[in-house]
Amino acid sequence: MFLTNTEEIPGKQITRAYGVVSGSTVRAKHAGRDIMAGVKNIFGGELKGYTELLQESRDEAIKRMKAQARQLGANAVVNVRFSTSSVAAGAAEIYVYGTAVSVE
Amino acid sequence: MEVLIQLIFFLILLSAGYLFGKIAEKKHYRSIIERERQWMQIPTSSGRHVFATDKEVQRVRLATGSVVISVDYFKRIVAGLRNIFGGNVQSYETLVDRARREAILRMKESCPKADQIINLRLETSSISKGQKNQVGSVEVLTYGTAVYLSSAPAAKTAKHS
Question: Which of A36, A54, A66 is the best mutation test for B, with the most CBs of B within 10 A?
Fold first, then answer.
């Protein structure tokens, strides 16, 4: 499965488009991670727990999008876009969407 | 007496934030500058097309990088004061600058063998927005298309110029 965020795949020809596919995850914060975040809040610096959280949810969202594309019979997703938002206090949503296509 | 204790506690937090925050920021900037020099070999653009090459594209893949960085206590207080007087909030400027550059570096580190990265996009948000006890943290996600070129130049009939 090819993934790109350009309209076309360089060096490949798009033969058929299937429409928009998307995947999303909503993740809540972890209590333990939140305590560490509180400490980091005084000293500043990277919140590793949250970075990991973000990464995991992003991978999960991509996985869901890929599954949807595969179901349609596509072998690539072009024009992929990410979008993050906070749904409620302490919960973050990652939404990824793109156009499922066939390439050769 | 209680007021005094609170004041002392506040001052301790303030000075700890100032000291450790400053050290952490300096260290982070040093590492960013060093790694930026190291990863200069991967040209990155926000344009949509493969640029400045006569080689054929071998394969492409999505590259992503992300980071969450928090601001220290001292800077938060300074930013709070800025809210009264207005003007540039410099303490937050360095925060987002660090976060973005770090995220771009992580993206590059995720595909060390790529020849170039095109269509770079940056997404900034905050996990804990809308919370009362606000964490002054920023979350940056960068993504782009990593392009791997073949080692031989393309035939003269190739579309890429």
Answer: A54
pLDDT in tens, chain A (104 residues): 888 888 888 888 889 999 999 999 988 766 666 677 677 777 778 888 888 888 888 899 999 999 999 999 999 999 999 988 777 766 778 899 999 999 88
- The angle formed by the CA atoms of residues B64, B42 and B46, to the nearest 5 degrees, is 60
Q: Are B69 and B98 in contact (CB under 8 A)?
A: yes
Place of tokens 């782009």: B144
Alpha-carbon Rg for chain A, nearest whole angstrom, is: 17
Give me the residues paired with residue A45 across strands: B70
ipTM of predicted complex = 0.83
Of B84, B143, B87, B152, residue with least CA distance to B119: B143
Domains contained in chain B, CATH given: 2-153 (3.30.110.70)
Q: List the single residue in B with minimal CA-CA distance to A34.
A: B135
Q: Is residue A18 part of a domain?
A: yes
Q: Could you tell me if B141 lies within 8 Å of chain A, comparing CB atoms?
A: yes
| Cβ neighbours of B123 in A, within 8 Å | 82-84
In a domain, residue A37? The reply is: no
